[in-house]
Amino acid sequence: MSAQPSGVMQMIDTLQLGGAERMAVNIANQLPPEHFASHMCITRQNGPLAGEIAPQVQQLVLDRTRRLDLDAFARLRKYIVQHRIRLIHAHGSSLFLAQMMKALRPSLQVIWHAHYGGYASAKGRGLLLGLALQRTDAVFVVNHPLVGWVTATYGLAPDRVRYLPNFVLRPAGVGPAPDLPGTPENRLICVANLRPLKDQLGLVQAMVNVVAEQPEVHLLLVGAEPDATYSAQVRAAIQQGGWVHRFTCWGSVRM
């Protein structure tokens, strides 16, 4: 008799458009079904990326509206038991909910995926995060400085921390790439939602140095614009720098 596939749950707060959300969906979709039964738990708000979850991935939407939601906790625990979930891959702040489930079911394994590169430059030590990480079986980080941050700040053994760069999956049936502004040898593309932590404003300000080396450079900003104030600041900086002919803001698109 063949062994039953292990239940693995991706856990994330939302499936709005974003890098962490995209990685959670990609990982859930790519787990080989002969070895893993893949599940996706959205703890708070569903979003457009839910439509890209593969058919074999089972979904649970908790719709939490507050931190202490006993009904959501009970539904999640019941789901974990019914579907024999053995591992929770928690993305971002969902780590705390995953650790609550581990406290109720100690056999659960928990992986934390740290998507925010700014952790490495943040000052201070989060006590709650430190307590949660001590019970975490492994940590994935999106850049090399985060490896040192986790091991030095929280004392995790290096063999419990792994660098996992973001990856892109090309959907099946996608046609040829569209025509893009600029020439290939002078084209830069930044794929990230326009938000302060992504620092597109700094990228715009750095163009004075780029243009000095590459006079024909053209920069494409690809990503949603959830922060209208910040988007306005970026566009104003483009205007003030005289870079209008060197920039294209594409918003959220599929290429």
N-to-C order of helices and strands:
EHEEHEHEHEHEEHHEHE
Distance between the amino and carboxyl termini: 44 Å
* Proportion of residues in extended strands: 15-25%
Question: How is the quaternary structure best described?
Answer: single chain
Percent helix among the residues?
A: 25-40%
Count of separate DSSP helical elements: 8
The order of strands across the largest sheet is 3-2-1-4-5-6-7
Tell me what the CATH architecture of the largest domain is.
Answer: 3-Layer(aba) Sandwich
Give the CATH superfamily of the largest domain. Answer: Glycogen Phosphorylase B
Q: Structural class from helices and strands?
A: alpha/beta
Which stretches are low in confidence, meaning pLDDT under 50 for 5 or more residues running? none
- Please give the CATH class of the largest domain: Alpha Beta
Can you characterise this structure?
The chain has two domains: 6-163, Glycogen Phosphorylase B (Rossmann fold), CATH 3.40.50.2000; 184-251. It contains eight helices and ten strands. The chain has helices at residues 19-30, 70-82, 95-104, 127-134, 144-154, 200-205, 207-213, 228-241, and strands at residues 6-14, 36-45, 58-61, 85-91, 109-114, 138-141, 161-163, 187-191, 218-222, 247-251. The strands form two sheets. It has a seven-stranded parallel sheet with strand order 3-2-1-4-5-6-7, sandwiched between helices. The longest helix is centred in the last third of the chain and has 14 residues, at 228-241. The protein is globular, with a radius of gyration of 21 Å.
